[in-house]
Structures are given as structure tokens and as C-alpha cells.
Amino acid sequence: MGKKTWFVILAVLVIIVGGVTYANASKKASTNTITIGSVTSDADIWRHLAKSDAAKRLKLNIKVKEFTDGLTLNKATAEGQVDVNAFQSYSYFQAFNQDTKDGKLVAIGTTYLEPLGIYSSKYKSVKDIPDGATIAITKDQADEARGLKLLADAGLIKIASDFGALDGLEKVTANPHHFKFKEIDDTTGGRLLHDNGVDAVLISNSVSQAAGLNVLKDAIYYEHINNHTRANVNILATAAKNKDNKTYQKLLTLYRDKASQKYITDKYHGTKTEVVKPLSYFKGVK
């Protein structure tokens, strides 16, 4: 066999070995990339954390994929199009798992409580809201349940002792002030605050921020971290098959890093209150 032939064979072998090495490297890089699905401000947070020194220390290669609605995002997570999602409260997560016919999700850990607030341009205290007043509340099942719990916590109504994450107005057991409830799309809350036909509006923190409001300063009543608001704590979630994925668990370490928390606190003016709790914290939540 001539030298030329040996040279050709050697060149082919180099190309083959190089190709296999490149393929393996690409596969490894792909495997180490975590795709996080998120919406609005949470997407902004994770884009920042993905570029942080803490992410580098933890060897986390994060890609953020933004969605416009939670249901689509949860389905994408269950189907494996997204590895982990960061946007939802535990009650929203429960509602999805209860209703879905697709794959189930599991919680990885807690992130924050973003307080739901009661706002009014007419009254400075919930005690000032008069009998017969109209209160606007989100019509989405999980959000409506959360809003009714807040109204009950404020002493404005009473709800059934077995009130759950998907319950609504039918579970209001006492309405002593004869309030009228106007069911709305959450995104319209900021505009309705100045509607003459509405006396008070329940607005989520993301919507209130978009309207230039700060729940800690502008709401006349808002959620605090306690036993009544456990279901409203936000979580990281993934498909059930990933429940023991240790790399995904590192995302909690990244989120709870001091520099990460300083960024979140400064950017959102303290309205995303960090919650560091074990998953057992949700035991018994309905």
C-alpha cells in the first residue's frame, strides 16, 4: 500500500474521530443547558441570573424562553419543551395538575411571595369600603380563589372552612356588607382602579407594577407570609420525571444567592418577598 493511500486513510480517520468528538461535545453542552420557561418580570429575573457570577460558579448554562400565558408554559414543561418553569404560585400549580390530562408537574422549591393587593382610589382603608360596594376580582379560577381568601383575611367576607385552590364565589358563606363582585380579566385591574363603577380592585403584583403601583405602599390591604398564604408562594416546577434532578436543584441555590436577591429586591422595590421553605411547607394546602 503506497504512502498516498496511507495518507488518505489517516486523513479519513482524523475526520471521523474529530466528528465523533464534536458530536459528543455538542451533546454534552446540550445536556448541561437548562431551558427555563417564564413570563413577564420572572423572565427578566432569570435572564439576569443566567449571566451572573453565581451561575458561572454553579456551572449552570441557562437559556430563558418567554411565554405569554401560564397554561401554555405548564403544558410545554410537562411535554419536555421546557426543563423548568418559574412563574407560578403553588395554588396555580395545584390547579394545573388537577385539571390537566397531560403530564403532571412537580415542585422543585420555593422562590417568593408576590403579594396580591386590594386597591382603591376612593378609600384609604378596607374598613372604609361601604356596604353595597362593588369589588373587582379576577375571574381566573385560581386567582379568584386567592382573591376571596384575601378578602376573608381582611375581614370583609367569610368563606367555607374547606375552601380550596379552585373554589369561587359559591364558597362565600357570609357577605355581611352585601358587596357586589365584578369578575374581570386580571390585566385590566390597573385601569379599573379609576372606574367610577368600582370601589375596590384586587390586583396582582405584576399587573400593579405595570400600572406604576407598589403593593407595599399603594394597596390598602395586601398579603403577608403566613399560614393563610402558603398556597400563594411561587415555586420552580418541572415535569414529574425530573423530580430528582440535582442540576435543577441548583437553580434554587442560584435564586437564593445574596447577589441574586439584592438584584431582585432593588429592581422590584421589595415586592417579591423571598420565601425559603421546604416543600413540606405545603402539606395540607388545598
From TrEMBL:
The entry's keywords: Lipoprotein, Membrane, Palmitate, Signal
Annotated organism of origin: Leuconostoc falkenbergense
Protein name: MetQ/NlpA family ABC transporter substrate-binding protein
Domain of life the protein comes from: Bacteria
Family: Belongs to the NlpA lipoprotein family.
Nucleotide-binding among keywords: no
InterPro entries xref list: Lipoprotein_NlpA (IPR004872)
Membrane topology recorded in Swiss-Prot or TrEMBL: Lipid-anchor
PANTHER family in alphabetical order: D-METHIONINE-BINDING LIPOPROTEIN METQ, LIPOPROTEIN
UniProt-annotated location(s): Membrane
A matching Pfam family: Lipoprotein_9
